[in-house]
Every structure is written in C-alpha cells, then in structure tokens.
TrEMBL record:
Keywords, in A-Z order: Oxidoreductase
UniProt-listed PANTHER family: DEHYDROGENASES, SHORT CHAIN, ESTRADIOL 17-BETA-DEHYDROGENASE 8-RELATED
The keyword Oxidoreductase is annotated on this UniProt entry: yes
UniProt keyword Oxidoreductase, yes or no: yes
Protein name: NAD(P)-dependent dehydrogenase, short-chain alcohol dehydrogenase family
Length: 255
C-alpha cells in the first residue's frame, strides 16, 4: 500500500502526461487532492485523460505542449498560474527514446531530436517553473532521468547523453535554489511497463519478458511505482532530500 498525501490547495504540473509514468503521476497527484495540469504533445489524448480525472472527482486541466519549444513551455506555466494561481510541484517527465544505431551511424537530426526533448525540454521546463516558484518562495521539482544516467548502453547514445545531462541539471539547480525554498530532485526509473519500453524491443512480448528478467526483482516496474517515488519527493516527507537522483529499478543497477 502506498502512503497517502494531502496536497489539497497545491498545484502540480506533469509533462508527458498522456500515458505511462506521466499519466500515473498526474492521477496520483489528483487523487491526493492537488489541482493538476497535464501537459503533452498529444493534446487530444491528454484531454481524454483529464476528462476521466474530473469525472472521478479530481481537479485537472490539459494543455498541448511540446517541451522542446521554449515559447510553448513559457505559455504552459503562464496558463497554469492563470488557472490556479501558483505552481507547487512539477514532474518533468516528457521524453523519447533514441532510434537504435551505433554512435558513428546515428544522424545529427536524431541526436538533436532526442536532446531537444529529453534535455533541452527539461531545461525549458525548469527555467519557467523555477521563475514562478521563486516568486512564491517555495516549490518542488522532480525530473525524470533514467538508469541510463548511471551507465552506458550501446546503440542509444543520444538517449544516454540526454539522461546524464538531466541528472547534471538536477544537481546544479538543486544547489542553486536550496536556500530559496525550492527542492529539485530526479528519479532514475529502470525497466517500467510502458509503451516506450515495449517500443525498444519492437513490441515483442517475448523480448520484453527477457528484458524484465534483467531486474533482480524479476519483473518490470509499474508506472504507479514511479508515481509513488515522485509524490514522496514532492512531499514534506522528503524535506531534507535535495539534488538527489533516486533510482527505482528493482535492483537492476546494484548487480
């Protein structure tokens, strides 16, 4: 059983919120009483998920946003504050996987695409989230990195580079804003049962089952398990946790 939090009166923003870890986290925030802004490139899909949250008694809006576009991110934060008056918590989750190719064979276009969303996108979000949180004098940000931030992985160099960068940004911003009432942390998910993880193995159930066996716990993680870590990092229970990249991987990286 997950711990419960009372986020009533607080406002949470989740990017990449139309599915997977982002959607699970947005739903968890809403179930804990927060007003939630779900942002995603797929505006139609996120609107459907918002409707479900509202139908269940939650408070939420959806915003179409490409996090690699700084102007769209600035507008996202402006819309959040216009709607709810503040921003207390943010989960910068939006990300993509690199197309499989050795470093020398990868294209510059593919590198720019992955870095633009996974790293520049996190920087864009943090920039405007931090500006708002500074005005308030409080806030908590969690960035979605990866166990790929801790090691290398042949064939997905741009993805690995982007996630190493996310952890570096997290640690630096954590130091910069520690005395301004803002905590910045990250999570490093392992193999999580999401569409992006299944896409890595071409949608093969057999290949995904083999991937799951790589974790000592013997299974893939659930999006809700990442959501639980994010909510904890945003809560007062983690008030002394700062600049941390919390690994949630079923033991994968301790082998």
């Amino acid at each position: 059983m997950n711990p419960t939090y009372d986020f009533k009166g607080q406002v949470a923003l989740v990017t990449g919120a139309a599915m997977g870890m982002g959607l699970a986290t947005a739903r968890a925030f809403a179930q804990s009483g927060a007003s939630v802004v779900l942002a995603d490139r797929d505006g139609d899909r996120v609107a459907k998920e918002v409707a479900k949250i509202v139908e269940e008694g939650g408070i939420a809006i959806g915003v179409a946003c490409d996090v690699s576009n700084e102007a769209q991110v600035a507008a996202l934060i402006e819309r959040t504050v216009a709607e709810y008056g503040r921003l207390d918590m943010a989960f910068n989750n939006a990300g993509v996987m690199a197309r499989l190719a050795p470093t020398a064979d990868a294209t510059s276009e593919e590198f720019d695409r992955v870095i633009g969303i996974n790293l520049r996108g996190v920087w864009n979000c943090m920039k405007y989230e931090l500006q708002q949180m500074q005005r308030q004098g409080s806030g908590a940000i969690v960035n979605n990195a990866s166990v790929g931030a801790l090691t290398g992985n042949p064939g997905i160099g741009a993805y690995i580079a982007s996630k190493h960068g996310v952890v570096g940004l997290t640690r630096t911003a954590g130091l910069e804003y520690a005395k301004r009432g803002i905590r910045v942390n990250a999570v490093n998910p392992g193999t999580i049962d999401t569409q992006i993880a299944r896409d890595v193995v071409g949608g093969s159930e057999q290949a995904f089952a083999e991937l799951e066996k790589g974790a000592p716990i013997g299974r893939a993680g659930r999006p809700e398990e990442i959501a639980a870590a994010v909510l904890w990092l945003c809560s007062s229970a983690a008030s002394y946790v700062l600049g941390e990249a919390l690994t949630v991987d079923g033991g994968l990286t301790v082998q």
